[in-house]
Amino acid sequence: MNNFSQTSIIKDFEQFSDSYLNSIHSPSSKLVEAIKYSLLNGGKRIRAQFVYTIGDMFKVNYSECHKLALAIESIHAYSLIHDDLPAMDNDSLRRGKPTSHIKFGEATAILAGDALQTLAFEVLQNLETSDIKNFKKINKYLANCSGIQGMVSGQQLDIEGENKLLALNELNIIHTNKTAKMFCASFILPFLLSSKKNEANIEKILNSLAISIGLCFQIKDDILDVTQSSETLGKTANKDASSQKSTYVSILGINGAKEELMKELENINKYTSMLKELGFNCFNLEKLIKIVINRNY
Fold first, then answer.
1. Rounded CA separation 115/108 (Å)
2. How far, in Å, CA of 254 to CA of 242, rounded?
3. What residue intervals traverse the membrane (predicted)?
């Protein structure tokens, strides 16, 4: 992957994902339709792209990256379905289309999310590895990032923070878990399939880098939420303010949020410099990071 191509990576991922879903024989065609609607319904595929980029950096087989990317995007899609439910964010627009519960009803949307969560761990069973100890580590790492030690706890803290003015450190804790932990999965899972998997210093750098990228992603989201239209975003604009949630913008203001973004970008540059010093080519990684920072939706 010498020349990073966002378009070709996304196309390859979606072809693999569509083929994988078509190979599943479910007694409920409606459930499969709801799963496909949410998983293959567009999206930036940022987490998947990081899987392929880190996989390329550490010389991981491209076909194995397909599986890791699908597992992570399945978790992400399930989280979006549940986030949009009336009991959570109560949103009607996702990726420019009606949310899953608007399209299929609440019950089917909940079940589609449940199925996507279990699908993620089913996909991991297809990884080509004879190292059982490392295979268990991969499964556990994804579970930790997506569950009570990661994303789900972050979502709970986000709910508990509604109608409160949170301190910056409290907001960072929420989004380190709710957002950044799944970026950690995108970095660490391909690393664990590489020949460098036992080098703890590299894993530590990648983990720190992923957290900073995840926080940058969220800060940028908060800025876009108040500066872009629903049409541009593909989801309801200014939703956090209407839900009375603390955001980087509500706490720091637009300019303060942009300054916080630059602080995290400095951390990102520090960690990528560390990887370069260890002899890794970060060209494609840095290119993808710029896409995350400079996006307008």
1. 10
2. 17
3. none
* pLDDT tens per residue across span 101-129: 999 999 999 999 999 999 999 999 999 99
Token code pair at residue 175: 């989004």
Ranges of H-type helices in 85-199: 100-104, 106-124, 132-146, 151-160, 168-175, 181-192
Does the predicted TM-score (pTM) go above 0.90?
Answer: yes
Q: Which residues, 6+ apart, have CB-to-CB distance to 138 below 8 Å? A: 124, 127, 189, 192, 193
Residue 290's nearest CA partner among 260, 259, 269, 263 is: 269
Cβ(154)–Cβ(175) under 8 Å? yes
CA pseudo-torsion sign 102, 147, 72, 173: positive
Query: Residue 276, Cα to own-chain centre: how many angstroms?
Result: 24
Task: Dump strand ranges (E) for 220-271.
Answer: none
Q: For residue 122, give both structure tokens.
A: 């089913």
pLDDT digits (tens, 9 = 90+) for 208-257: 999 999 999 999 999 999 998 887 777 777 776 667 889 999 999 999 99
Domains with residue ranges and CATH for the chain: 6-294 (1.10.600.10)
Element (H, E) at 99: none
Query: What is the Cα–Cα distance from 235 to 277, expressed in whole angstroms?
Result: 40
Q: Please say whether the beta carbons of 240 and 222 come within 8 A.
A: yes
